[in-house]
Amino acid sequence: MKAAVWYGQKDVRVEDRKSKELQDNEVKVKVSWAGICGTDLHEYLEGPIFISTDKPDPFLGQKAPVTLGHEFSGVVDDIGSKVTQFNKGDRVVINPTVSNREKEENIDLYDGYSFIGLGSDGGFAEFTNAPEENVYKLPDNVSDKEGALVEPTAVAVQAIKEGEVLFGDTVAIFGAGPIGLLTT
Known about the structure:
- The structure is a single chain.
- The protein is an alpha+beta fold.
- It is 20% helix and 28% strand.
- The chain is built from five helices and ten strands; from the N terminus they run βββαββββαβββααα.
- The strands form three sheets. A five-stranded antiparallel beta sheet has the order 9-3-5-6-10. A three-stranded antiparallel beta sheet has the order 2-1-4, with no helix packed on it. The chain has a two-stranded antiparallel sheet with strand order 7-8.
- It is globular and about 50 Å long.
């Protein structure tokens, strides 16, 4: 399969790669749509920032080279033997954030974290694997293309929540990139 693989600063190669072996708790996704995040651009121009180059990522176990892409949607192509919530053909979106999740959600859900597409191979490929707990079905009224915007939209929503912004409040948003526009 074709994949956009990060090897180092200003070194991303489109190359043929084999799909990774599917683990018991994973869903294999045929990627339909993927967004290029500012984080992907920063890894390309300035990295490594989040991508581990000297030892395996503590949450996802991979180090460079790594297939980029953490904003993506697709269709379930295969499921691991312990997967119970998905079937082949389901349209899905991926929450790329992987964490121990041992803190209370109202305090801070993430006690250290990594991302599919930075700490392990991501959505800039024909196929990628994701843990079942990070996969969500797309409603029929949400297109695959719109599904690729779920992760950046979640970032904007979290900014609003953390800022405790209410209707009628006046705020300043610095930056009119995708996150800034979604926050607006």
